[in-house]
Write a structure and sequence with these properties.
It comes from Lysobacter helvus. InterPro entries: Biofilm_reg_signaling, EAL_dom, EAL_sf, GGDEF_dom, Nucleotide_cyclase, PAC, PAS, PAS-assoc_C. Helix 24 links the parallel strand 30 and strand 31. The strands form six sheets. The chain has an eight-stranded mixed barrel, surrounded by four helices. It has a six-stranded antiparallel β-sheet with strand order 7-6-11-10-9-8. Strands 14-13-12-17-16-15 form a six-stranded antiparallel β-sheet, sandwiched between helices. With 820 residues, it is α+β, with helices and mostly antiparallel strands. The chain contains 28 helices and 33 strands. It has five domains: 111 residues, Beta-Lactamase (2-Layer Sandwich); 115 residues, PAS domain (Beta-Lactamase, 2-Layer Sandwich), CATH 3.30.450; 118 residues, Beta-Lactamase (2-Layer Sandwich); 159 residues, Reverse transcriptase/Diguanylate cyclase domain (Alpha-Beta Plaits, 2-Layer Sandwich), CATH 3.30.70; 211 residues, Alpha-Beta Barrel (TIM Barrel), CATH 3.20.20.
Amino acid sequence: MSDAHLRRQLAEAQAALEAERDRFRALFDAVPDPVSIIGYDGTVLDLNKAGIAAYKRPREDIIGQPIETLNPDLPRDHLAPVLETLSRGGTYVVEVTNMRADGTRFPVEVHSAGYVDEGQQRIVAVARDLSGRHEAELRYRELMEVIDKGILVRNAEGHVTYANPAAMRILKIPAGASIDGEMRPERWRVFDEHGVPLADQELPSFRALRTGQLSPSRVCGFLNLETRRLAWLSITSVPQFAPGADRPHQVLSLFSDVTGFKRDVTLFDRVQDLAHIGGWEWDAVSDHVYLTNEAQRVLGLDRATGNMVQLQSRLRDPERKRFQEALARAVEHGESFELDLQGIRADGHTLWVRIIGESERHDPTGTRVSGTLQDITEHRQAEETLRVQARTDPLTMLLNRDAVLEELEARLSDPAQSGVAVLYIDLDRFKVVNDVLGHAAGDQVIANAARRIQQAVSTEGLIARFGGDEFLVVCATGDDIGRPQRLAAAILGAFGESFRMAGEEFSITASIGIARAPEHGDRPQALIQNADVAMYDSKRRARNGWQDFSQALAEQQQHRLQMETHLRRAVDNREFKLVYQPQVDLVSGRTVGAEALIRWRNDTLGEMRPDHFIGHAENTGDIVRIGGWVLREACQQMRRWRDDGLPIVRIAVNVSYRQFLAEDLSETVAEALASAGLPGDALELEFTERVLIEDAPDTLSTFAALRMLGVVLSIDDFGEGYSALNYLRRLPIHGLKLSQLFLQGVPHNGSDVAICQAVAGIAQSLGLGLVAEGIENEAQRQFLIRLGVHIGQGFLFAPGLAPEELALRIQREHESTAHA
């Protein structure tokens, strides 16, 4: 091939390339939307004429500049999602805001695609100006806001996402309320134009969502179940589809209020029948009354028209006056009203109706009043049932606590009442049944006891279950001042026969306290509290008896309140101290441990014995805080003894059942041990038998947690309660304490000897340790040694000692042992 021929071919190829570039530029510039060629690094490589015109910049100010020149609002790394989409062969679409040379902005929708130009990856981006569409959307939104037709938009799930002001007005939606909440289907009952109820899915909007087809204009009645307002609406629902979707993503419903055109009497009555709401209209001038079918049915009248006397004939006398006054105010002052009135049916039964009325606003004479009428008898009866239930104890069907307090308040406030007495009744030994046989048996005892009290009291007093196993009787005294005592004796007599439960017989008696008004109190709480004080005194003296409140008991009550007040502050005032009774080896007499015993001295009350204040602390709950202090103080004292080299194996601390319930005991114990730097086996916790009968999972988990700490667990005064041996086997305890109650008659009383032998046998058979308390003489010590009991405490060895006294005792024991 000659050089001339080669040059000619190159020239032709160059001409063709130039022609192709001219065609590309012509096409590039012919596109009406801005088109940019962008490098993968974000640099603008080319821009067509539409782009130069749109951005109002010279071409040289754009080419070679980063894309942020045209769109300064792009986020950092904005090219990352674009390039990822292009790598998959896709087109990336995004709405952004571009900027002109003068700083003004305009919205665009950018479509970006990838291509290769001379071996380089490029991006072609077409930007479509959305300003016109946004203006159209704004005009559309303004139209929706000002149009007098209601517009609702529901999403695919049926929730309302938009309502225009007209919709809010037509549907009476309060300002600020949630339109979706107000339009929940359960708040409305909807009817078709013939008054037939419609299911939710048959409503025009839901039908359009379900079918994807327009639901043409349809008249539906909407009854608001809360306001009882009925509105008739003409509704057209249009489904709306997202681009490319085959199911509607929302539905737009356009409606208008046509209630004014639905006054046809027949249709109106049918709808009222379905809603169980009657309608009425009264002309005050002619006294003419019109009633719908439902209103006639409610009142038991057989005529649709009549006069006001006939309507009021169904109301009781006091209610007629209320209705007449409301009608007069409606006519004279335009006042609306809503009344719940009691009436009488044709068959003589009680009727309750709710009547709503208002004057006709468009009546120029102002003499026409209309409204609705609804039978609320069932609703009133249900309210009465609930009121009775709220005043009744469900187990015994007696008055409950609140009800009897209300009744007592009424009697004490009634000047016609010449005297009132309260009997406070508490069942003796009820806890035995409840603990041993369970709560179901306990409930049977309570119900049986209630029946016995009812039979004893009959109609002479009000009876209430005041709580747990406590009952209250309120009776009038008047001239019969002996009635309270007579009723108390009758009640005690009713408990003379044993209760039979689960094939067993239980002797359950009652303790009764009596207080009278006004001498023992003129307010319910004071009277009941004083009767309670008398009941406790009766229980303390001898169960199965009654006791009148007296001035002496009042003084005791005052002393108790004073004690409780001081007791509440005793920990903070550092009024408590601990003494320690030695626990000794019965054979050698050597001290091996000690039990911490609390003592209280108050500046006002003086020295208080534990049996005087511990019970009060239990009742008030202060025992929880006091017990926590005892636990911490005992552990700290044990730490001091160990630091002094005293060979005390462990210290025993009593734990109240209220402590066990009221706090995380294992956590409290762990903190006390950690604070004193003691191992768990340096502490022994003594519980009453009450913890044995609790079958709650928390009880078992607490015992397990304490045992994991290494703490020694024992049951104090074993045998005094009513525990079954099964509980000993179930709970992870280490030992028992033999009560001094059984040791008092040893070794001469055969019954006490037998009980001690039984408890020792139980401990040995279950592998439990046994400590005897209350050892007062040598004969008791020798008996316990022969019984195999190795550890004991009591006045034979020492009373409770101050810490330094106990330390001195142990030092002397060691000195004596050393000299021997």
